[in-house]
Structures are given as C-alpha cells and as structure tokens.
Amino acid sequence: MREMLAGGRDGDPPLDVLTGDYLAELTMLILGRDLLKDPSTGYAKTFLRQMEQALGLAHERGTRIVANAGGLNPAGLADALRTLADRLGVPARIAHVEGDRLPPTAAAAGGALAANAYLGGGGIAACLAAGADVVVTGRVTDAALVTGPAQWFFGWERTDPDWYDKLAGAVVTGHVLECGTQATGGNYAFFTEPGLGVRRPGFPLAELAADGSAVITKHPGTGGAVTTGTVTAQLLYETGGARYAGPDVTARLDSVRLGQDGPDRVRIAGVRGEAPPPTLKVGRARLGGFRNEVVFVLTGLDIEAKARLVQDQIEDAFADAKSRPSDVRWELARTDRADADTEETASALLRLVVRDPDQDAVGRALTGAAIELALASYPGFHVTAPPGKGAPYGVFETAYVPAGEVPHIAVLPDGTRVDVPVPDDFRALEPVPEPELPQPLPPGAVRRAPLGRIAGARSGDKGGDANVGVWVRTEAEWRWLAHTLTVDKVRELLPEVRELEIVRHVLPGLRALNFTITGILGEGVASQARFDPQAKALGEWLRSRLLDVPEELL
Question: 298 pLDDT exceeds 60?
C-alpha cells in the first residue's frame, strides 16, 4: 500500500483512489470462525496493520482508499479505523457499506458461518460523494471497488445513454486490477520471456477515462511488465463465458479489445454492457465436517505393490474399527525416479485423505491404523508426519436471491445511512451463441510438442468448479487453437476431468478459449478435495501435455 501511494516520478499526479481486494472465498470462512470467537472481529486485520503506515500518507496526497477488508464486520473495521486515525492525528473521514450479510433465511441456512450477497459499487460511490477519505465494505464484487469510484469521480448517472457500457468498462478494469501483480507478470505462463522482470513485479494501476475505457500500467521503475499477454491472462482468470454478470452490469467479455499503448501500457476499449440479472450471487461458507490426512513415503523398488499393501492394510483397519470415514481418497504421486542419487528422489508419495461429520472417525481410526502399521507393512515404511486428531474443514456454496431483497446501505462519515436503490431494469442471463471460428490452417507438417509452446493458460476456482483460460498471441496460432482445443481434446489431455461437465467459451477478440469444469474441486477450496484445491496449476498441467502442433508455429 505504501509502495503504491509513494510511487511514481516527480511531478506525476498522485493516485485518485487506491483499492484493495481482501476477500477470497476461503477468507470468508476464516473470518466467520474469527467472528464466532470474538464478535468485535470478522474483518481483515492485515488491512488495519497496513493503514498504520499508509493512512497519513494517503491523506497527505489526497488519495481515497476503498477496500472490501470489512469482511463480515465492516462497521467494526470502520470503528477501528477511526480509533487509529485519532491515535495517528490524521483527520480522515471514514465510511462503510453494509447490507450484504444475510439473515438466517433459506439462503443462509445449513449451519453457515457466513452468507453474503455480492453488492455493486453504488454504496461506495455514495460514501465518496459524501466526502469519505476511506471506504470499507463487506462482500462486494471485486470489480465494485472500481465501478464505485468511477461513478463518483465521473458523475455517471443511470440516465446516461451509455451507462451500462461505461460501467462494463469499469468492471473489466476492476477485474484486471483485483489480483494485483497477476496483471504485471505474476503467475504468467510466459514468465521466462526476456524483459518481464517478474522477480518482484510492481502493482498495476489504471488510468480510467470518462467513457469507461482505461489504460493499465504501473509505477515507473517497478518490476514486472504490462503487456497484452499479462492483461489477457488476468481477464481470463476465474471468468466463464462472454457474459460476465454482476450486480451493476453484465459486461460482454467478447467485446473487449486490448492494444499495446507503449511500454508497460495496455489500452482496454470497446467494452459493451447490458442490464444486470435480477438476482444477486450469495456466497455461503459453512463447516463441512472433519478432515485428516497421512502421506506414506514409498522408496525404491516395487512402488505399486507397496501402495497396494498399505491400502489393503488401512482398509482392513477401518473395517475392524467399524468406523470407516464416509469419504476416503487415495492418490499415488510418482515423484520417484529410477537409480536415483538421493533417497528423496527415489521416493513416491501415497496420500490418504479422509472426511467425515464425526471427528473420531477421521481421528482415532486413522491415527491408530497408521501408527500400528509402522512395523508391520512395506519395507522402508514411514510417513511425512503423523496424522493428528483431524481438523474441521469448510465448504463454500453459491446461491442466488432476488436483488430487491438485499439491503445495500452506505453509512456516511457523519453516520447518515443511505439506501442504495437497485437497478430499475434487469436482463436475464442467456448463453451467447458460439461465434464464427476463423479459417483453420491448411494441412501441413506437424510435430509432437507441449500445448504450452504455443498457448498460455491461467486457471482458478469458483466454489467447486474450475476455469481454465487458454490464449495465443498470433492470428495463425488462433486459427490452429480454435479448431484443435475442443472439449473432447481437453478430456483427452486431462484424464482427471474426463467424466465431468465441461463447457467451452470462445472469445475471438482475445484469441482465447475459456473452459469451465464443473465439480472438479468438490465442495470448494476449504474442503481440499484434490491435490491442487484451487486449480491454480490446472492450466499449467494442460500446457505441459503433448499434441500435434504445426511445425510453422514452433
């Protein structure tokens, strides 16, 4: 935060607004548990610590701060900020937005620790218009951290003929900014390219225009890079089809046009928007039960036979105890190699994960079985760490409620409470027909090569689902990718998803395909249903797979 406030060359204008996104799906579960222990918490304490150093500098430079760090208790965070401002002697005006936290109705039932609707940017705009220096919110969409300040700064009104187009441009900009350095070379598929400087990438900033277009850039002298590739990668992250819906607007991702506007400058233009859907998304975090795991180390010869033996022994122990956990999963990772010159590289890992509503079923039954086999199983038996008693795990679920049933309240610096109206027009979400594909490349010589030699990818999680965005950089590569990487080809390259529902979305303006894979993450990141519980590396696995690539592209 301090780097962003103090950055820039001498003579550069200071930032108008500094935004911060603190609320991953897993974070809401953690904050829910905090709130159960202490009703005065429930917000992101990290933000408060950052403001110790940043609040005075922001006030001095005239930069407003907007963050969703309020989590489940934005009013509590606002009070803590006022106390901090008084202690620091900074006359900062603090406001907050609330209403997203749902009461225990049908949408919040099922033992939820937290059930929050995703609000738009209207409350933020109202707080800024009332003179707030700092605005903290609970659960708003990540893009609302930009749509709210944009409405305030430019004075956009619902009566503007291009209201939805301007908001959609702000949404796309907000999506690029929300994950920080992922827009400046962090986690970038082509990170080995010369000149990217990703060892310590700087944070992105947006020069937003009154028409909703923007230039993504960064402070001079900071690391990383801003290219059409880094921005494309972030645009595809955790999105789906051409219609990207939110409470303010549905942004048409198939209308986005990117252009390099100079070194470390990418222009976003052409974004079109539509009326939002009549419902708001609700994120619901609840405790799902108890989880435990043990990782057996299998070294040297006969790896498969060793794995079978210990699996059979553990299953027998569960049967003898008459308390087999309701969910038992085994996964053998062949990290071993033949004739290895270290013991670690001669070893494979057999991972056992168990889940059950009863803590004893994942505690005593597993720890007893694993420890008792220490002298009675495969040669070289040992584990990476002994299993414990089992720990609770969380589940993230999605529901939808009518937009008019959720209050959206701006609490201004003087304490005045302002109701933010819901949009007066809605549009139901409908799938966009697949656009016309480019002409395929003419037949020619091919070579077996990894997909990643041609294509970049970025993947992520939404509840129990994952998305994998894949893009290329030239028209010839696009003509090949659009016809090659079908749903059937993804099933072939990623056997783990073969039985799951997969939908392909085509975005020609970005030379990109976006695949949504339903159910691959089970009950979401907190349940840790698979080796990579947030699907962060699913795209890199896909890029590593071999297929026939035209020689002219290599």
Answer: yes
Instruction: Give the residue among 223, 260, 235, 251 at the shortest CA–CA distance from 176.
Output: 235
27 burial type by CB count under 10 A (0-12 exposed, 13-18 middle, 19+ buried)? middle
What pLDDT, in 10s, does the model give residues 149-190? Answer: 999 999 999 999 999 999 999 999 999 999 999 999 999 999
Structure-token pair, residue 288: 């799902």
pLDDT digits (tens, 9 = 90+) for 42-71: 999 999 999 999 999 999 999 999 999 999
- DSSP for 82-145 reads HHHHHHHT----EEEEE--BPPSSGGGTTTEEEEEE-B-SHHHHHHHHTT-SEEEESSB-TTHH
Separate counts of helices (H) and strands (E) for the chain: 14, 25
Going by C-alpha positions, the residue among 394, 403, 402 that lies closest to residue 110 is 394
Transcribe 22-80 into DSSP letters: ---HHHHHHHHHHHHH-TT--S-HHHHHHHHHHHHHHHHHT-EEEE-TTTT-HHHHHHH
DSSP-derived secondary structure for 160-228? STTHHHHHHHHHHHHHHHTTGGGGTTTT-TTTTSTT--TTSBPPEEEEE-TTS-EEEEE-TT-BS---H
Provide mean pLDDT across the span 75-96: 98
- Indicate the pLDDT class of residue 388, thresholds 50, 70 and 90: confident
Nearest to 271 by CA among 256, 285, 284, 281: 256
Residues 6+ apart with CB under 8 A from 311: 330, 350
Contact yes or no for 407/477 (Cβ under 8 A): no
pLDDT at 111: 64
| H or E segment and range at residue 149 | helix 144-154
d(CA 222, CA 33): 37
Tokens of residue 452, six digits: 């990643």
By the 10 Å C-beta count (0-12 exposed, 13-18 middle, 19+ buried), 426 is classed as: middle
Q: Is the pLDDT of residue 479 over 80?
A: yes
pLDDT at 107: 46
pTM of the model: 0.93
Instruction: Write the burial class of residue 227 (CB in 10 Å: 0-12 exposed, 13-18 middle, 19+ buried).
Output: buried
CB atoms inside a 10 Å sphere around CB 415: 7
Tell me the two tokens of residue 101.
């936290």
Give the length of the chain: 554
Strands 502-507 and 465-471: unpaired
**CA 180/CA 178 separation, integer angstroms:** 6
Placement of tokens 């002219």 in the chain: 552
C-alpha R_g of the chain = 25
